[in-house]
């Protein structure tokens, strides 16, 4: 398929704790197509941000194995200078906290201008300023020529995130990675930013990887969804399938734990806690510890992703047998971690 | 921003005023007064008393203070030294220039040492290089300045004879010539360097931790995500943001220097304010001591003022308000 | 007189400026807020950052100075200096947003949970230990964990330690300031369920402060929506969600992402409609300063901030 933009094959990102490496992203295989929003959902510790940082190769000290194929390059093995040519140009990123993601001592013009300058040295300062104003217009900042000379602390959170997006789209990237882009923002601002990202996708024909923990955001934005748990992808499907027919126990539990119109009263509680990187089970079904009422035999020994319908992959066989416990104990006793 | 500076100046004024009152009261508490040193024991005590009355020495302290401060402000009248039999202003005048040059050269050395060491140490933290530099700073923290200065003087001045061991210039040179200038510089280097080597460790440590701190900020990741090369990330983002607090520290550095010059000038018998201060205390030359304390105090207040103004100039978060 | 009555509460913070740093203006963080809560109910205070919802909660418990207005708790005026001595403060406790920073990292769980007990009750070491273990058990933590430090717990567990501390003195009112917004979804569910359980068990009343309308809808009986220090709408949960009247409430409701991807288009249209209405009718909902008008009752339970007729 020539629609393919990014292909991740068996990606493994490990961090060093003391003397050993522990994989935060474990054997992830994914593709991102052009003009598509792929949402990666998971809770903290699921490895979703580590995955995003691996694609951009922004990790400082991590061991990355596997392949990340983007425009005929394997990003994992690219030289730093070639990588710098890609970053901010063909692939760009938006971060969670727009307050800390901007340099407090540089004007907005300088920060956006830097992204332009790095990939187009021929632009004159005048042209660059015009382009910056153009970009600020595009992301919906009301008085761009005025905002140019402002500093980040003079802008509201929503405006800062718009500036971040302006930086990200300044060189018309083909791939945009948005790491929890609206988590730090108010709901009404969140709606505006999400609209903006959606418009950009349509205008630029870009592929977007949207990292989030918010299932509502996923439902609104995504074309396809990958659910991550403990460093692995446990389920991938298109967004409608995932919400209507979720298969993996983790996906189903997550959907059941969000307050929504469907269920009043008790929310589903996932028992236990997300294991830390060091204590992550490396064998068997990683989610099995969190559904202790299920029989051990329902799990595969080495769970793999099964394609249960075209484009719908689920890890492990336990989903075929999974049920919610009738009366989950009111408060789970998990005092000892 | 000008508002901030004006406000800051307004705060500095009462500080200086309070300092002058304290200095004045301190001087009052010392035994004797302006006449004591001049008195011929054969003069009739009644005449002396009359003279006292005429000079206003029997007035309450606040009136005397007003007289004194008016003199200081309008005529630069800081009294007379009984030892030198000169106006204090005149004595201090020569010493002040010497101390000024010593401080300036020390500051230059301080930053010449601190900036490269701090940057190396911060950028490559926890490497061998960093450990060497941090090791040096710990030694610097632990070494008293006066001992280090003495050792430096003994080795480099007396044993090797590379540097003069006292004074501010070789005798017999005409001011204004190039040789005179070189000689002054030659006299400055050893005291300035020994002071800088000790006082710079603060700045090295400060810069190091600023850089390590800035390295972990989110906007550094943003810069990398834009495609900036590692060297650009360091020069444009990390360094710039880390140097800001260092610039603001500049004013306090001056305050620190004042303490340093007292030791260093005494040890190198360098004729500056610090040496004058110590001498005058030993000789109970109170009018000089008072004047020096006043000036050093003002210098400290101005140092702090300078720090705040620099910070307001370089940090947009303060500048805008 | 109800259980908790807040009457025309104002909390203003001075803005200092000028050469002499004198008070030149004030931030009207809370600007004339009134509401009352019945015992055993959950009252939701909703708003975006800067709306004054947290300040209101903190003012009720006495963490912010009240500029004007009254707070009656079971008939006692908390703003009255004479009542400072009264032990009503014991009956009101607070749960904070961030379980990572609201627990002193240098203290053991026993010291954290026992702190209010030590302030109000004289217990022997043994009684105290027993009591703390009991409280921990109540919040679903094993009693053996009393000697551990906060960092040994996960976010949800920490929040439950915070709750254990809050219920130690058997309070009647708990002010919960964004109690789950720092937590993961699954942990969120755990804490919310648990809060509902102890509410029933201890007959607690909650003032539940949150920006998340989904959670508020799930938890609260009544809701007040705040905008720039004032109320824009108040009513039963049903009133607010099925029949929002104020344009700001509509915007908030429209902004909640729908969890069903099928409704995406519908939701988008709804949002655009509301946005259009917002732009067209802004003036009929906000005064010249961009603030909300006073509340007008439109039904027994439902009040909306609208201008005077005419």
UniProtKB/TrEMBL annotation, chain A:
PROSITE patterns: ABC_TRANSPORTER_1, ABC_TRANSPORTER_2. One of its GO terms (cellular component) is plasma membrane. Residues 6-255 form the ABC transporter domain. The keyword Cell membrane applies. Keywords: ATP-binding, Cell membrane, Membrane, Nucleotide-binding, Transport. It is found in: Cell membrane. GO terms for molecular function: ATP binding; ATP hydrolysis activity. It is a peripheral membrane protein. InterPro entries: AAA+_ATPase, ABC_Ni/Peptide_Import, ABC_transporter-like_ATP-bd, ABC_transporter-like_CS, Oligopep_ABC_C, P-loop_NTPase. It comes from the Bacteria. One of its GO terms (biological process) is peptide transport. Pfam families: ABC_tran, oligo_HPY. This is ABC transporter ATP-binding protein. It comes from Natronobacillus azotifigens.
Automatic annotation (TrEMBL), chain B:
It is a multi-pass membrane protein. It comes from the Bacteria. The keyword Membrane applies. InterPro entries: BPD_transp_1_N (IPR045621), MetI-like (IPR000515), MetI-like_sf (IPR035906). One of its GO terms (biological process) is transmembrane transport. GO terms for cellular component: plasma membrane. Keywords: Cell membrane, Membrane, Transmembrane, Transmembrane helix, Transport. It is found in: Cell membrane. The chain crosses the membrane at residues 100-121, 133-156, 188-207, 242-268, 288-314. Gene3D superfamilies: MetI-like. Its main location: membrane. Residues 96-307 form the ABC transmembrane type-1 domain. Belongs to the binding-protein-dependent transport system permease family. This is ABC transporter permease. It comes from Natronobacillus azotifigens.
From TrEMBL, chain C:
GO terms for biological process: peptide transport; transmembrane transport. It comes from the Bacteria. Residues 4-253 form the ABC transporter domain. One of its GO terms (molecular function) is ATP binding. CDD domains: ABC_NikE_OppD_transporters. Belongs to the ABC transporter superfamily. This is ATP-binding cassette domain-containing protein. It comes from Natronobacillus azotifigens.
């Amino acid at each position: 398929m020539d629609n393919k933009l990014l292909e991740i094959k068996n990606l493994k990102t490990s961090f060093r704790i003391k003397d050993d490496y522990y994989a935060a992203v474990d054997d992830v295989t994914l593709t991102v197509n052009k003009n598509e929003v792929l949402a990666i959902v998971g809770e903290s510790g699921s490895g979703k941000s580590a995955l995003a940082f691996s694609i951009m190769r922004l990790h400082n000290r991590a061991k990355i194995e596997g392949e990340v194929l983007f425009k005929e390059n394997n990003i994992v093995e690219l030289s730093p200078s070639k990588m710098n040519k890609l970053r901010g140009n063909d692939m760009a990123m938006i971060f969670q906290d727009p307050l800390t993601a901007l340099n407090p001592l540089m004007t907005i013009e300088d920060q956006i201008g830097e992204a332009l300058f790095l990939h187009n040295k021929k632009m004159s300062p005048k042209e660059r300023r015009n382009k910056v104003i153009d970009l600020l217009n595009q992301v919906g900042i009301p008085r761009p020529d005025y905002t140019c000379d402002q500093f980040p602390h003079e802008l509201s959170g929503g405006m800062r995130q718009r500036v971040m997006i302006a930086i990200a789209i300044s060189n018309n990237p083909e791939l945009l990675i948005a790491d929890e882009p609206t988590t730090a923002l108010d709901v009404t601002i969140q709606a505006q930013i999400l609209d903006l990202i959606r418009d950009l996708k349509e205008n630029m024909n870009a592929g977007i990887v949207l990292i989030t923990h918010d299932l509502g955001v996923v439902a609104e934005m995504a074309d396809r969804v990958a659910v991550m748990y403990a460093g692995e992808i446990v389920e991938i499907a298109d967004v409608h399938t995932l919400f209507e027919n979720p298969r993996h126990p983790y996906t189903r539990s997550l959907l059941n734990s969000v307050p929504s119109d469907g269920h009043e009263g008790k929310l589903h509680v996932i028992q236990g806690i997300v294991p830390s990187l060091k204590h992550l089970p490396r064998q068997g079904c990683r989610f099995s510890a969190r559904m202790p009422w299920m029989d051990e035999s329902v799990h595969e020994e080495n769970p793999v992703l099964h394609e249960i319908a075209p484009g719908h992959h689920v890890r492990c066989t336990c989903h075929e047998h999974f049920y919610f416990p009738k009366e989950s104990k009111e408060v789970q006793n998990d005092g000892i971690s | 921003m000008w508002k901030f500076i004006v406000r800051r100046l307004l705060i500095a004024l009462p500080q200086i005023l309070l300092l002058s009152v304290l200095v004045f009261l301190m001087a009052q508490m010392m035994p004797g007064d302006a006449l004591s040193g001049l008195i011929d024991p054969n003069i009739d005590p009644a005449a002396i008393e009359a003279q006292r009355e005429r000079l206003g020495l029997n007035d309450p302290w606040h009136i005397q203070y007003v007289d004194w401060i008016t003199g200081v402000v309008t005529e630069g009248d800081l009294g007379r030294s009984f030892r030198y039999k000169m106006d204090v202003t005149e004595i201090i005048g020569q010493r002040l220039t010497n101390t000024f040059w010593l401080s300036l050269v020390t500051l230059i050395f301080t930053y010449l040492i601190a900036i490269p060491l701090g940057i190396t140490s911060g950028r490559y933290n926890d490497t061998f290089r960093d450990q060497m530099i941090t090791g040096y700073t710990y030694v610097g923290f632990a070494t008293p300045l006066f001992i280090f200065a003495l050792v430096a003087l003994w080795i480099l001045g007396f044993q090797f004879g590379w540097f003069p061991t006292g004074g501010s210039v070789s005798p017999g040179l005409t001011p204004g010539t190039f040789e005179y200038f070189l000689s002054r510089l030659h006299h400055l280097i050893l005291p300035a360097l020994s002071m800088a080597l000790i006082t710079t460790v603060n700045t090295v440590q400060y810069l190091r931790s600023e850089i390590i701190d800035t390295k972990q900020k989110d906007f550094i990741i943003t810069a990398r995500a834009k495609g900036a090369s590692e060297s650009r990330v360091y020069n444009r983002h990390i360094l710039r943001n880390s140097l800001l607090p260092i610039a603001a520290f500049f004013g306090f550095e001056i305050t620190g220097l004042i303490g340093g010059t007292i030791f260093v000038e005494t040890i190198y018998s360098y004729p500056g304010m610090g040496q004058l201060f110590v001498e005058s205390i030993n000789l109970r030359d109170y009018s000089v001591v008072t004047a020096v304390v006043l000036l050093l105090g003002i210098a400290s207040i101005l140092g702090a003022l300078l720090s705040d103004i620099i910070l307001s100039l370089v940090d947009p978060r303060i500048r805008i308000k | 007189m109800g259980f908790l009555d807040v009457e025309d509460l104002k909390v203003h913070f001075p803005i200092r400026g000028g050469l002499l740093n004198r008070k030149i203006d004030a931030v009207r963080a809370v600007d004339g807020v009134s509401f009352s809560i019945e015992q055993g109910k959950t009252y939701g205070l909703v708003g975006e950052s800067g709306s004054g919802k947290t300040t209101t909660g903190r003012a009720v418990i006495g963490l912010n100075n009240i500029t004007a207005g009254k707070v009656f708790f079971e008939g006692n005026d908390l703003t009255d200096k004479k009542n400072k001595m009264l032990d009503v403060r014991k009956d009101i406790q607070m749960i904070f947003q961030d379980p990572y920073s609201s627990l002193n990292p240098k203290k053991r769980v026993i010291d954290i949970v026992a702190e209010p007990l030590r302030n109000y009750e004289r217990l022997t070491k043994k009684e105290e230990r027993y009591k703390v273990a009991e409280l921990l058990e109540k919040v679903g933590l094993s009693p053996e964990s009393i000697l551990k430090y906060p960092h040994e717990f996960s976010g949800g567990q920490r929040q439950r330690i915070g709750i254990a501390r809050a219920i130690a003195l058997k309070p009647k009112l708990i002010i919960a300031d964004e109690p789950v917004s720092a937590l993961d979804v699954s942990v969120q569910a755990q804490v919310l369920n648990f809060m509902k359980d102890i509410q029933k068990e201890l007959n607690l009343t909650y003032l539940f402060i949150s920006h998340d309308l989904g959670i508020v809808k799930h938890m609260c009986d009544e809701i007040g929506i705040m905008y720039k220090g004032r109320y824009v709408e108040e009513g039963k949960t049903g009133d607010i969600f099925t029949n929002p009247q104020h344009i700001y409430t509509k915007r908030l409701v429209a902004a909640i992402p729908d969890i069903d991807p099928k409704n995406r288009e519908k939701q988008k249209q709804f949002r655009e409609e509301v946005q259009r209405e917002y732009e067209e009718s802004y003036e009929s909902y906000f005064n010249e300063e961009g603030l909300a008008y006073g509340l007008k009752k439109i039904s027994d339970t439902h009040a909306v901030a609208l201008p005077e007729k005419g």
